[in-house]
Amino acid sequence: MKEEEVQDMNAQQDSSMNENQAAEEAEAVTDSGSLTAEEAGEAASGHEEELKKLQELADEHQARTLRVQADYDNFRRRTQKEKEELAQYATSKLVTELLPVLDNFERALATPSAGVDAEAFIKGVNMIFRQLEGVLKNEGLTAMEAVGQPFNPEYHQAIMQVESEEHEEGIVTEEVQKGYLLKDKVLRPAMVKVSM
Asked: pTM for this structure?
């Protein structure tokens, strides 16, 4: 029986210790709860200030972004307008250089045909043609040399094949229409007849 009494006493002591411990913990929680509420108030006001600063920073970044976007839109519109103007007036330099050629053709056509020597007229037209050729050459226009060259579809447009004893197969034998290069780019391929 002693053992049972000892166990009962131990159980009573454990339960009283548990009750004391629970009371101490509850008191500590209550004490810490009141401190936490004060600290929570301070923390909340600190968070509000930090939130306000972050909001101001976000607003500043938003305003910057809108300004950059507006600047980009203005830049895009300005460059588009410049491109359109450039495309519209890109040929003005060439046309200005061709005006004297046009004037010379008008003078040649205005001469009375009855009193003009045919040879002098042809000589004048040849001079105008050379003047026109010089203006176009200064702009980078060159005529292709096609006859006797191997057929190249990048430079030549074959309109027919002909039998030829003097040329081997695939050689341009005749140029029907001249081809032209503008600097390094094919402006118009040459229309040619090719040997077979």
From this structure: 0.52
